[in-house]
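User: Show me a protein chain along with its predicted structure.
Assistant: Here is one chain, sequence first, then C-alpha cells.
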Amino acid sequence: MSIKLNDNYNNVKKSYLFSEIGRRVRAYREAHPNSNVISLGIGDV
C-alpha cells in the first residue's frame, strides 16, 4: 500500500493559524509580564 500526498498540500500557506496565534500570545506575554492570559486552546477547555 502506498500513500499519495495530496497535490494541494503544497498550496497551504507557510504560516499556519495556530502557530501565528502562539507567536502573538508569546509576544503579548513578553510585553505584558504582569497580565494574566487565559488559554482557551484545544485541550484546555
